[in-house]
Amino acid sequence: MIVGLTGGIGSGKSVVGNFFTELGIDVIDADHVSKNILDENKSAKKLFVEHFGDKFIDKNNNIDRALLRDEIFKDENKKEALESIIHPLVREEIFNFIKNSQSIYKIVMVPLIYETNSQDFYDKILVVECSEENQINRASKRDNKTNDDIMNIIKNQATSEQRKSIADEVINNDSSLNELKNQVIKIHQKFLGIDIND
Fold first, then answer.
1. Distance CA 187, CA 173 (A)
2. Could you identify which of 11, 19, 37, 149 might form a hypothetical disulfide with 184, taking C-beta atoms 3.0 to 4.6 angstroms apart as the criterion?
3. Domains in the chain, start-ordered, CATH in brackets?
4. For the whole model, what pTM was predicted?
């Protein structure tokens, strides 16, 4: 069984993913893969430099992400060109992960399942939700961005209602870490087919 784990920025997907890992479930973070693929995959980096030039390569021979982000923000064609390099490789990584995973079910953590209309790829969709206030607080602390920056990202993502419309299970992350972990354990038991009563 393949579970798609999704949620808006700052909702707590990574924390939920870590709890599933603690329960012995294999988890892959598509965002993490896509962020690192240009640095870790030589052919991707070569393609990138051929297309974008070497002005985005810093003195340590890594991608200057801040500069790249600024360029992509201004130019939709560059964004599409970058995605055409990265997305096939991310998909390949995810397929390899699924093929090699030994856990009873596996989790693919993806921020944009609703937005990319890719829910049919998964057997179950698990959505992590929290209040907008918590999203802004968590994401601005983590990413060192302003509240306005986070609000812009939230506005460009699916709404809570849209995400819930494709969800098989919903986790609410407005309470304590302990409460969050308890919700994960209950859903884990459900995925294993264990009948539990509240």
1. 14
2. 19
3. 1-25+104-198 (3.40.50.300), 34-102 (no CATH)
4. 0.85
